[in-house]
Amino acid sequence: xxxxxxxxxxxxxxxxxxxxxxxxxxxxxxxxxxxxxxxxxxxxxxxxxxxxxxxxxxxxxxxxxxxxxxxxxxxxxxxxxxxxxxxxxxxxxxxxxxxxxxxxxxxxxxxxxxxxxxxxxxxxxxxxxxxxxxxxxxxxxxxxxxxxxxxxxxxxxxxxxxxxxxxxxxxxxxxxxxxxxxxxxxxxxxxxxxxxxxxxxxxxxxxxxxxxxxxxxxxxxxxxxxxxxxxxxxxxxxxxxxxxxxxxxxxxxx
Length: 254
Fold this sequence. Notes:
The chain is mostly helical. It has 2 domains: about 140 residues, no CATH class; about 45 residues, no CATH class. The chain has 9 helices and no strands.
């Protein structure tokens, strides 16, 4: 049975959509202020290890972490194609948020001069080892995630197919090289090379296969056939036989 919507039902749906829009806007606002807060602490923490004259370039460190926190969720929602690529992107997104969190905690402890690093020695290890490399860990995501894209897998499959085809072709060439016909050709070529080397070593004249003259056309205009060409080449001193001339017909008597 088809449900009939009343004006009240439409008003409820409209109210729900408005509340969803408000919630989404407030969520984006919270996320933006979170990035501002973490960006403040990340810049203060990561730029402390940069020389004073290069302090401006320290901006790149916290920009990498902040932009990654924006780019990764967008990529997860719009561009992941396989389950593996999706969960790898989720892993790097969680890693990026974790780096933002611990960098903010450590910087706050340093600025506020609390004993947090003394009570938790592993935070001191994090400050000395992990925090300086946190932008590199965040950037590593964009070196791994594109490798799991379907286009990359397609190019890899095509490369493997070409390699397999070339390998099969090489095997066929090796098999044909062992045939009797190829062996005969190699044997004849080796015999000619051996005879040439022996004649050169013994100072004997080496015969050169010079191309013979092209067969001239016969007087009647047609080219000689194979038998005529062979006869002319086999007996060059014999003059060619002239074609028989037709006898003139007697003129009528007057």
